[in-house]
Amino acid sequence: MPDALYILGVVAATSCVVYAAGRRRGMRAGLLPPALRRAIRCVGVCLLFWGGNVAVGAAVALLVRGLGLGFIWLYVNTDVSVLVLSALQALAFESWRIEHERERAASASRTDDPPGSPAAPGPAHESPHRVKGAKR
Questions:
Q1: How many other CB atoms sit within 10 Å of the CB of residue 103?
Q2: Are 48 and 86 in contact (CB under 8 A)?
Q3: Cα 35 to Cα 30, 41, 77, 121, distances in angstroms
Q4: 16 in helix, strand or coil?
Q5: Per-residue confidence at 136, pLDDT binned at 50, 70, 90?
Q6: Torsion of CA 130, 110, 92, 23, to 10 degrees
Q7: Percentages of the chain per state (helix, strand, coil), in multiples of 5
Q8: Confidence band for 73, pLDDT divided at 50, 70 and 90
């Protein structure tokens, strides 16, 4: 069996197990397509960060070589750690972007409320400067 087919089989099997476990916990199947879109977007952002990190690393290595400050191998920039760190960068960036979108949506919904209407309770309407665990 080719390695690629084996890997796809393992990933398909674990995906089926997780899907069944999620359905047993009451997770709706209709929520899966938007989750997959977010995952694909995150993979795309990861690839952008990875490409940027490799390009910047190569440029720095060539600059160091050109200035005679030492020798840095170009292949160091393709180490798996660069990919893992790029994935962490992508997750942090996507989380930041999502929080920004939530904040903008909450702000827009507050400005859409008629004057004098009470704000809906919840984290979207709480002050970001509130001390955790403080009583209201």
A1: 12
A2: no
A3: 9, 10, 31, 26
A4: helix
A5: very low
A6: 100
A7: 75, 0, 25
A8: confident
Taking each continuous run of H as one helix and of E as one strand, the counts in the chain are 3, 0
pLDDT, tens digit, 9 for 90 and up, residues 11-50: 999 999 999 999 999 999 999 999 999 999 999 999 999 9
Judge whether 54 and 78 are in contact, CB under 8 Å.
yes
Q: Which amino acid is at 44?
A: G
CB neighbours (10 Å) of residue 84? 12
Radius of gyration for the chain, computed over Cα atoms and rounded to the nearest angstrom: 23
Who wins on pLDDT, 120 or 5? 5
